[in-house]
Amino acid sequence: MTLWVFGYGSLLWNPGFEVAEQRPARLHGYRRSFCMSSIHHRGTGEVPGLVLALDAVPGSHCDGLALAARPEDTEEVLAYLRARELVSSAYLERLVELETGTGETVTAVAYVIDPDHEQYVAHLTLEEQAQIIARAVGGRGPNTEYLWNTVQHLAELGIPDAELQWLSDRVRALAP
After folding, report:
1. Theoretical Cys-Cys bridge with 60: which of 21, 31, 114, 146, CB 3.0 to 4.6 Å?
2. pLDDT, tens digit, for every residue of 134-150?
């Protein structure tokens, strides 16, 4: 059985595993959002950053990629993703149904935000998000890099995201 992983943020440009196949994919019922405070990878406890998460919103959808791991790498890829994505328990690992660009449905692992976790910050305005992203730096580098890489890869894939594009432009104006 093929392990599929839903990429919607940094997994688009830094999956961290050898991708055997990728397909455009849509996840219904969730939206891509900078709704997770980052105290490890893109910020610190003193100056938190923001990272993308899948936020459950009825009637919404998120476009991204279905990424297939090589069958012989399944256990290693799952262990890697769990170490990377579940570092603070703000994400929940879920099996979700993705609608692919070919019209078929695949079951994939996705990391969605726990709305009851203290790192859930869906109440922030876009301007507040921009102010945070422009200044935060964490263990994996500047928060700006995370935003700009994601926006660039979404554009290359032909996936429009008006909020992320607005954030990218605003953060460029704010960043030193």
Report:
1. 31
2. 999 998 899 999 999 99
